[in-house]
Amino acid sequence: MFDRLFDSALLLSVVRATIPILLAAMGGLICERAGVFQISLEGTMLVGAFTAVSMSYVSGNAYVGVLCGMAAGVATSSLLAVGHVSRKGDPIVIGIAINLLAVGLTGFLLPQFFDLRGVFRDPAIVGLSTYALPGLSRIPVIGSALFQLTLPGYCAFLLVPLIWVLLFRTPVGLRLRGVGENAPAAQTRGVPVTTYQYAAVLISGALAGLAGAQLALGNVVQFSENMSAGRGWIAVVAVLLGQAHPLGVLAAAMLFGLAEGLGFRLQGNGLAVQITDALPWVVTLIALFIARKRFIRLLDLTGRAA
Amino acid sequence: MTEGAIELELRGITKQYPGVLANDAISMTVRSGEIHAIVGENGAGKSTLMSILFGLVAPDDGEILVRGERVQFKSALDAIASGLGMVHQAFQLFPTMTVADNVVYGHEPRRGWFIDRASSVRQVGDLAKSYGLGIDPSARIEHLRVGALQRVEILKALYRDARVLILDEPTAVLTPQERDGLFEVLRRLRADGRTILFITHKLNEVMAISDRVTVLRRGRVVHEVATSDTSPAELSIAMTGRSVDTSRRRAEHAVGASLLEVSHLRVDDADGIRRVDDVSLTVHEGEIVGVAGVTGSGQAELIEAIMGLRPVTDGTITLQGEDVVHLDLRGRRDAGLAYVPEDRHRVGSAALASTSQNLFMAYQWQRRFQRRGWLNRRAVERHARELIDTYDIKVAGPDQKVAELSGGNLQKVVVARELAHDAPVLIAEQPTRGVDVGASEFIHGQLVAHRDAGRGVLLVSAELWEILALSTTIFVMFDGRLVAQLDPHETDDVEIGLYMTGANEQQRVHT
What we know:
Chain A has helices at 2-5, 8-33, 41-59, 62-86, 91-114, 143-146, 151-169, 171-181, 183-188, 193-219, 231-241, 246-268, 273-290, 292-301; strands spanning 119-120, 131-132, 148-149, 223-224. Chain A is mainly α and 306 residues long. A two-stranded antiparallel ribbon of chain A has the order 1-4. A two-stranded antiparallel ribbon of chain A has the order 2-3. By secondary structure, chain B is an alpha/beta fold. Chain B has 16 helices and 24 strands. Chain B has helices spanning 46-53, 76-81, 99-104, 117-130, 146-159, 176-191, 203-209, 232-240, 299-307, 329-335, 355-360, 377-390, 407-419, 437-452, 464-470, 493-500; strands spanning 6-17, 20-31, 35-39, 61-66, 69-71, 84-87, 110-111, 114-115, 164-168, 195-200, 212-217, 220-226, 258-268, 274-284, 287-292, 314-319, 322-323, 337-340, 370-371, 374-375, 425-429, 456-461, 473-478, 481-486. In chain B, the strands form 6 sheets. Chain B has a 6-stranded mixed beta sheet with strand order 6-9-10-3-11-12, sandwiched between helices. In chain B, α13 runs parallel beside α14 (437-452). The longest helix of chain B is centred in the middle third of the chain and has 16 residues, at 176-191. The radius of gyration of chain B is 25 Å and the shape is globular. The interface between A and B is medium-sized, with 17 and 18 residues.
């Protein structure tokens, strides 16, 4: 059975499932390091997906869609930046509000703009093309899965080392981590805490928007209501499980990608769809249980005493 | 270094908070290359003055001159730029980072886009070596002891080339040996021409280290004098406005029957680590048993185990002959234990509850506070008024929330509540930490009165003078064990300090 379960098609679906989670989680990671608990990734991603599809449809260019999706993500996350960083509102309350708003808003705008409900699928929506890396993409089994991705896909995996270098090798990264660990101490060293936290939140918005664009123009070429389907929440868990470390978060995102890919495959093998859909969440629960101590510590770090 | 050049001058600094004039036209002069102590009781305005000096709080009036130039600090950054450095009581560090990263944070040496780690480690290491700070620049902050953290704070100021170093109650967290080490560092800094402002309320330290002293009382400068021209008694009178009895009150006293007996007590924490190891001690009638030790040596776990807040792994605890290990907290209180916990804010009181509620909390099931199964509000209030009176607690009334009380008054509320029921044994944990001289003297008086009434006290304190002044027997705790039993007449803080740090060890102590 296992040889039928694990093959390059499975790897491809795992990688595709991982990318949006990874993009959003990298944004969440930056926020976590800056001491902002970012749980609005889900809603931000959905807004990004909707905007990307709409603008691709209007402009006929997938990258216009992607850029607009990222911009919409930035706009969405600015609610968190203003509400939490500037106005000191509770990040969890604001995050949940953003997530609820995103579902309602996209569900409302879909019929307003396109005169339809549920799913928006149209030949005029231009999807993202994939680019094969010469040579590498010909490696058997893993080549087509890993080296034939969309630009946001490559971007997701490139971000892992980039963010690692940023965080642990540059002055900006050191300061960002200091802001998250002890904001008053950072402030007295002349580091503008608010600026860093704003930047972190807005970048996470851009990345969650990009995740949405990849989801709606890369993984599929359509927008359907609530299509983020919990991936933003899983990204939040990936940040905590990966201990806000780029490599840890990559591993966590791939674990969830594996669960989703496996679920998809098992569904093809005749398992009930309700069970396979639940698989990523079962993994999430197990992960939360394993990481509960760390989870509490991180919540503590971001000022949410558990 | 030009002897006598003026480094820092304050003129008429005034700060009004709602209801309190924290600083009232404070003027003082600090000369280059001196160690200048600022002393005063809690609430005398020391902290406010330092916050103003470091740019954290804006004064309502007055001016600051640094080396003759008028400055206006909008934030701590301006103060740092003017050559001031501050070592706060609560350290401002990043626990998961290394010492070097903490020190260079905000002004990192760079190589292109990156931090030049090699250079920062070298610079910080050199700096530490040249002042004898003995710190490994690559160590992680979370792995360092409190004394080392303080030296990291000093390094931070030196890295920014601070000419004036402000230390806020720097010895509160140190063992006597660490304190001596700190003084050595301060002397080196002085020899290097730097100026040190040393805030404290410990007069022996003022005498030991400072060149000049400024005394604050109720927001005003009441005394400024060269240390060699004054005495602790004179400073104490200046601080409090009255003469304080700091002599030892260890009246010789008949010791009676045993009250609390702890025998071969072992306590393991949730991770299976032994926090209390084979501890045996007895508190008799008319006795104050002092337990000295560096914070974190197992005293907290010992007390929690005695009170029933933490499971006992092995050993027995008996109170007046009755085994209490199987009893819960309430059962042990009923059996005769009273408890003044270390953390008066989070454990000892309920911040948002009123003073009267805090004064009868934990005793609410007593019949005197009830009427037909309901709380008798009148009895509660009468009880509160009595205690507020007896203990001279400064509150607007029984309904005032304790969150609004000063540290000393809140501690009086806790002590009053615990002593009001004449429990045979009182367990007092750091009963005067962060409490001003007046209140602390009062609380000591209450402990002594409790003892004189033939009851027992188990006193845990990190303040050696407190242990020495009150105890009839002294135990020293180190690494979960009682490593010494000492007679207060025949020991001193140096000897206790050696036991506290594990440098000395008697044979296992059993009583």
